[in-house]
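Quick entry, no commentary yet.
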Amino acid sequence: MKRQRVNFFDLISGLFMIRTVWLHIAQLSGLYPNDVLDMVLRITFYAMPWFFFRSGYFFNLGDRSLKDYIAKLSRKLLLPFIIFSIIGFIIYLPFELYNNQNEAYRVFLLLPYSILRFGSGGLGNLPIWFLLSLFSSLLFFAIITKSNINKNIIFAFPLISYFLQTYNIKLPLGLSNLFLGVFFVYLGYLYKKFDKYNTILLIFSLVLFLLIQFFNYSYLDFRTNTILNGTYLSYIFSSIAGIIIIFNIGRYIDSIKPFNYIGKNSIIFFVLHWPVIFLVKNIFNSYENSQNLLLVFAVCSISVLLIMPIMVELINRRFSFLIGGEFPKKYMHIQKQWITLNYKK
């Protein structure tokens, strides 16, 4: 049975996706950091934990075997990670070959190196690391769920994550954030069971969030599991508080059409926004060589507003298999091979 969408989850995800795209436009335009964007980060620093929380909230293995779940998860997350890493690299490649002084073969090694070392698509699609991280976190959580291990052991995972951060231990495939990801997945999984205590949790979260904001604001680069401001413990608690607050705000408002539209199609906005910004920015600079950072920001912003809705319609109508949807009938043999491959693993 197809699961009914919950509007306010799309609303919140859309809000955080706008935040992500806006920050990346500023980053690629050369406008970041600045005071305005620092304030946005200060208010929405828990955006990444939210997406893990959301996945945990809707996590349900049911009667499926672990193999079935891995096959579905691979199609939904791992396949888009591979496809859009390659697409980003193809867009990035001409600019790198033109500007790079290294041998061509070194340039072609950039993508596999970026994936193996950082779990990302390199400069062609840097944010794609999230899909691999979410895939690994959900897989790890599913393994724990299917085993006889007490899931409450996950409450100790932030300590492991803190240890990795403290001693600057970077895991391959960018999985230094794995334990923190599983932790927030588990919180989402648990939260739906404590709805009757929601008012108490909300009041406590508001007080905690404000106290930490005023006295020990903390921010973590989730991708690298590196604390950039404050302390690790404060980041964990303030992120939990922030998620509970935005959860309740979203549930009260329920729907703002543009935000819900972006949230519903957040996977498409996520996998394509960086390649689009990168391409527009480099083409514009090659013609204008503009030193006006605000102009570059404006051009990239307008381009994203125009291009992304077109890409959403195109992918949803014709190429939904790229983001985990069903393969067209003429490509069904590819889907069968993909599922068979995952079963063999």
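second:
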Amino acid sequence: GNNKMSQFSELNAFVAVVERGSFSAAAEHMGLVKSAVSKKISELEERLGVRLLNRTTRRVNLTESGRLFYDRAKQVLQDLAEAETMVSSDYAALQGTLKVAAPLSFGLSHLAPAINDFMSENTGLKLDVDLDDRQVNVVEEGFDVAIRIGRLSDSTLMARRLAPVKLMLCASPNYIATWGEPEKPQDLLRHQAVSYANIGKSWRFYDKAGKSHSVQVPIRLRSNNGDMLLGAAIAGLGLVMTPSFIACKALRQKQLQIVMQDFSVKDVYLYAVYPQTRFLSHRVRKFIDFLTMRFTDKPYWDALD
């Protein structure tokens, strides 16, 4: 049939078959008999004049057209669900599950308390949080939102800037007592450092005039986690280039001090990134708004007094 309602049930059937991998699994999910699902897909293919699925093996495979169509069909159904939520009475209360990814150190120190407060305010909401220092694939792994620190490169994602992240060169008093205090980038060649595994070999500094100085610091310890590096720096194993949100407590407690203050490093930023959808889901928008207000452009962790 060619009415609009049957188009929606065809889309639903198609998406269900793709996601569940077979006609019978899709039928079970939709509470229909297998032949009904098969019929809907045939009608859809007939109307479009293209083949969407290859039914050769026991598993169903998408054709190239099928893959293109699936991405858009899924989007249309999500948009519809979102539109219905928007006008329904429970719109005011956040419902459903929000799947969030964040780096480990920031996640534990600053995102976790924020999430606790957000969930206390929104009692109908469930959260699924993945803390990991690797950069997750937001779309493929099905995250609603990921927290990222750096400068953005992935243009397929939308991003909201949450806060600036100051990077500072720090050392422990006992490191300075042993190795002396570096005054300028060239001095670093005679020092040792603990460093993020994914940062290049060279560190770049800017003097007061804005001129850049690049230097390769000898690295004693590499790690993908900032808290491990912080501990190593406190233990006197080397200089550390660290974000202020990791170092703030150690600086307050005088376990570390900032060195080479006449030279600066380019700030990076804390972002919330999310897949490009025409509709940003209500819960994602509310969550990002909450984080923006909490961290601000003068984040609390930079208040060192």
